[in-house]
Amino acid sequence: MVSELPAKHESRSGRAEPRVTHTALFLAFLKMGLLGFGGVAPWVRQVIVEERRWMDDREFASLLGLSQVLPGANTTNTAVLLGDRFLGISGAAAAVFGLMAMPLAIAVALVELYGAVSDNPYVAAAIAGAGAGAAGLVIGTGLKIARNLKLSPRIILATLVTFVAVGILRLPLLWVLLCVIPLTVGAAWLDRNS
Amino acid sequence: MLFHLAILITLLSLLAFGGANAIVPELHRQVVDVMGAMSDADFTNLFALAQTAPGPNVLILPLVGWRLAGAAGLAVATAATVVPTSTLALLTGRILSRAGESRFLKALRAGLVPLAIGLILASGFVLARAADRDALSVAITVLGAFALVLSRINPIWLMAAAAAAGVAGRLMSP
Predict the structure, then answer these.
(1) Domain range for A180
(2) Pick from B45, B93, B108: which is nearest to A185 by CB?
(3) What pLDDT does A118 receive?
(4) Which residues are within 8 A (CB) of B127 and not within 5 positions of it... i.e. 6 or more apart?
(5) Which of A19, A166, B51, B130 gets the highest tally of CB atoms within 10 A of its CB?
(6) Side-chain half-sphere CA neighbours of A177 within 13 A
(7) Tell me, what's the ipTM?
(8) pLDDT digits (tens, 9 = 90+) for A34-68
(9) Nearest to A133 by CA among B57, B154, B155, B126
(10) Nearest neighbour of A173 by CB, restricted to B14, B22, B130
(11) Distance between the two ends of chain A, CA-based, in angstroms?
(12) Number of domains forming the structure of chain A
């Protein structure tokens, strides 16, 4: 079952499937979880696309899109989809376990230590600065994927509609997905036929 | 308590479209108002910590388990957060990859690309609106985004610079 996936993937992207081990998956997602202050998404792209070269930006964006459509954290969904694609269920488990291990340990430690550090104005200033930086990294990641993909005008329009609906108008995500998915899939369909 | 927690978190995680922010209001209602298991201030603190800690923001769910029932609560809440949604993702991924290469599926896969980019930009924008309270933090966000796009610098240095800039701003303010 699983073994036929790489063959399909190879024919689609036209290059050899990278060799991925359980340890590599675990360590890659451990790193993303550990570094993902203020949002894991920039690190997911950084590690998967730039450092490990497990997939290119187009495949990554498609996988990320599916992760965002599904309920739950999109990073755990990405871990599941990527792990399963390379190594089946055990690969998905290794990736999710790696992703959650450090954040859980750190979050529990923070809950217990909260009073001790939150009163320090310099700690608060560092966290506020890191939060502002993290927001910039998330925006930069979106722009970077968009730049690397050479999107058609229709796809750019679909991207902007999604951004405005969710980011500026703050419409409920479920309704936006139900309205926007036909639009983005329609734009992709027209691109293939034109 | 543990059983109730497992059911509550399983249901909430399966409704968490776009991550934990979608279900925080309902989690708050259940834990604070219905169960009376923690105070409003307690919940707000947990939420702030889940945002501060690295990792996905669904961390709020395991943290509620930890606060309500210690290590056992943490284990149950983590499993309830991760296992049902991961199973759904696994099945969806397999169905899609086994469904072959019809024109519709190619368009569906390509259609997820603008959705992914639009949503990641939207989430960055929402984070920026929350984080950017003064000129310094706006500058940090803008410079961070540009530096990531225009250079191949490792983001860890950008995060370190952002934290340092926050501390420097605090030191220079009267």
Answers:
(1) 150-194
(2) B108
(3) 66
(4) A38, A39, A131, A134, A135, A138
(5) A166
(6) 15
(7) 0.83
(8) 888 767 888 999 999 999 999 999 999 999 999 98
(9) B155
(10) B22
(11) 35
(12) 3
CB contact under 8 A, A158 and B114: yes
Domain count, chain B: 1
Structure tokens at A114: 């909260």
Contact status of A116 with chain B (Cβ, < 8 Å) = no
Average pLDDT of chain A to the nearest whole number: 85
Residues of B in contact with A50 (CB under 8 A): 152
Span of A14-28, A71-85, B151-165 with lowest mean pLDDT: A14-28
Note whether A20 and A96 are same-domain residues: yes
The minimum CA-CA distance between A108 and chain B, rounded to whole Å, is 7
* Inter-chain touch B149–A114, beta carbons under 8 Å: no
CA distance B70 to chain A (A): 10
Which residue among B54, B119, B144 sits closest to A36, beta carbon to beta carbon? B54
